[in-house]
Design goal:
The chain is of the alpha/beta class and 256 residues long. The chain is 41% helix and 26% strand.
Amino acid sequence: MIKKLFTILFFLFFATSIQAESKLDAIKKSGELRVGTTGDWDPMSMKDPATNKYKGFDIDVMNELAKDLGVKVKFVPAEWKTIVAGITADRYDISTSVTKTPKRAEVAGFTATYYKYGTVPLVLKKNLTKFPTWDSLNNKKVTIATTLGTSQEEKAKEFFPKSKLRSIEAPARDFQEVLAGRADGNITSSLEANKLVVKYPQLAIVPDGGKNPAFLAMMVPKGDKVWNDYVSSWIKRKQTSGFFMTLEAKYNLKSL
């Protein structure tokens, strides 16, 4: 009986020891930081199809984090609909920024936030007189496009309960449905919207103000307090040093 109890306690201790190893330890041992990113969110993470290399605000952030850790960075392709699953399945150690939502927080951990943005609708510029406000888009005759797996997909249900909602699967994007005339509007972050209206002059932001301020943070494995605390402390140090302010100027961004 005593021998059996000892065996059980030994295995419990062994399992706890394995589970207790943080990603921070594993990253330093391997010499590599694995970063999940979608590569389709201008200006945060964009993948150049010609070179297959990533660039953007978050890419600079992750390169800096890896440099300070003394390891190499490896960007792992992800999709919005599975970006959370990539963390839980250990396909990467951390993600580039995502919107912190209660649903995602059920299974993934979130670091300290480092950017705040608003949500805005986009329509064709020629339709601004037809859709001058958020309320004008909340109509059973209106189709709102969203990208599958994004936080905006959930927000669309809240903001436009009367409208027809169309979820588009990446690599296609919701704003492309508006450009093609298959949707009347879409909603996205204010930071992406400001870039899209420059790239596509036929698009316009509905001038009714940003709603539902959201916070960006990196996702890490839930329950790994050591890794989360390390990254969160790193973010706060970089905020104090002016690193994030410099990046905002580089990419012409302004946090709310």
